[in-house]
Design a protein that fits this description.
single chain; binds zinc ion
Length: about 230
């Protein structure tokens, strides 16, 4: 008697070994299909829609390399952003009050301003591999612009370093993007607010297309059909 070979549920091949991914009878897969990236992206069984359980294997070399890269990049960015204002602060001939106000404004935008900006961008833009590349490029442009302006300001004795740094670096690099994304965020949230008010103030029901009457009731001419009113029991 010939036994029917069990097929792979994706390619219908009947190899010697099949792997069961789930409790259901048909979720049998061949090694080749199992190793395809798209298969590994599946969250649920294609046959019975049960959630898959996953095994994780971490590559610690890649993890260390990535974490180190991020930490070094972070230190580099913070150093580039902190160095110019600190340098201007220590070289400045202005009064202590002006110096303190200057360094406080710079520190505020470098720390809290940057955190708020990153948070706003994450809320507004869908972050994927491409946006990460664009954001990294913008960051490099930002740091480059910041350094160039710092050298222009620092080596030009005729201009007031503090005022120029506040206007051209803090204003353009920190305040403008923050304002830009805050306005977009407000507009996005305006829609959410409108939706919230609409949801609270109006009840949405599926429009009734026609009626079906069962044997217990004959349709009487001109008598209005009762609406399917939800009864509230007190
Ligand atoms: Zn297969
Ligand atoms: Zn299944």
């Amino acid at each position: 008697m010939e036994i029917d070979n069990v097929p792979c549920f994706l390619c219908h091949d009947t190899p010697d070994v099949l792997y069961k991914l789930c409790e259901c009878l048909e979720s049998n897969i061949c090694a080749e299909c199992y190793n395809i990236d798209n298969t590994q992206q599946m969250a649920r069984c294609a046959i019975c829609r049960r959630d898959f359980t996953y095994n994780y294997k971490r590559n610690y070399l890649i993890l260390t390399k990535d974490v180190l890269c991020i930490v070094l990049l972070f230190i580099a960015i913070i150093s580039i952003e902190l160095f110019p204002p600190l340098h201007i602060y220590y070289k400045s001939n202005e009064s202590q009050t002006i110096n303190s106000i200057f360094i406080s404004i710079c520190l505020f935008f470098i720390t809290i301003g940057n955190i708020i900006l990153v948070d706003l961008v994450k809320k507004i833009i869908l972050i994927d591999d491409n946006t990460i590349k664009i954001i990294t490029m913008l960051y490099m442009l930002k740091e480059g612009f910041l350094l160039i302006l710092f050298f222009i300001i620092n080596y030009n004795d005729r201009i007031n370093a503090i005022i120029y740094y506040i206007v051209f670096v803090i204003g353009i690099v920190y305040v403008m993007p923050l304002l830009f994304f805050s306005i977009i965020f407000m507009f996005n949230n305006f829609d959410e607010l409108k939706k919230y008010i609409n949801n609270k103030s109006q009840l949405r029901k599926i429009a009734i297309n026609s009626y079906i009457f069962n044997t217990y009731r004959e349709q009487i001419e001109n008598e209005p059909v009762p609406e399917p009113v939800q009864k509230i029991y007190l």
